[in-house]
Amino acid sequence: MLSCVNLNNNNINNLKKLNDDRKIFNNINKDFFKFYNDLNFIQKHFRKKLVKLLEDSGKYVGYIWINNDSRKYYRIESLSININEDSVKCFKMLLNSISLKGSFIYECEKNNFNYKVLKEIGFKKIQGTLEMCCNLIGTKHLEIRKDISITKFLSNQDEKIRCYIQNKIFEKDDRIPLSIQDIYFDESQDYYFEDGCYFINIDDKPIGYGQIIVNDSMPIVVNFGILSEYRKNGYGKYFIKFLQNVAVKNGFKEIYIKVDWDNRIAFELYKSVGFKVDKEIYKWKLQR
């Protein structure tokens, strides 16, 4: 018989096994004990109140861990059950064990079964990111175009123009503009790759910016874009090919880029130069 119980000192070891298996349902489920082990006694007491375990005839088969961002919004940090259980029924029981009312947000990397389960429970997709990968083996040398020049970003010289270009490219009503301090902060990070930052120029005027960072030895294109008035002229395709060549020259065999799920123009651009979807990560919302 299925029942939901609170996390306590008697069953916390059972959670450890479920926590170890958390990536089976969702590869980006958070590690509860990574947070819990650094807390003091009082903090641990309150953290345990945010976890419910699903029990089936004395055996623990699933759990949910939430955080409250506000009284109306709750973030599901981890949600998992044993895959041989009735997924929809079990997840509904876990969610119903939470007495709170409001919006529950859950970030999930799509696999063969979680997407369908979340939809059946009643979650709705509200945001998404596609991580794309390109195999660089066999990448062709870029032919030079006389109407385009590409120049390297120079530290302690080009921060102001980079800040301006990025703010124009990614300008949105709900976006906080970058400051020059943000650019300097970026340059100070471990992922920063000095030989991977470039402007694309027309008549010596910067019309776009693109950057390769290196995270866990993996090159990723970030902050890539062309000013709106210069789009649809092939500059973006030429520029992304240039960055692919930069990666090859630096010994990388693959390169990655991320794109919003609803940005079809950017998606088709990256696809046209060899990128393929490697991961899909979505934010889901359940209203109660």
UniProtKB/TrEMBL annotation:
The keyword Transferase belongs to this UniProt entry's keyword annotation: yes
Name by which UniProt lists this protein: Acetyltransferase (GNAT) family protein
Domain N-acetyltransferase: from-to ranges: 159-288
InterPro entries: Acyl_CoA_acyltransferase (IPR016181), GNAT_dom (IPR000182), N-term/lysine_N-AcTrnsfr (IPR051556)
Superkingdom, natural source: Bacteria
Single GO molecular function: acyltransferase activity, transferring groups other than amino-acyl groups
Keyword field contains Chloroplast: no
Keywords: Acyltransferase, Transferase
Listed SUPFAM superfamilies: Acyl-CoA N-acyltransferases (Nat)
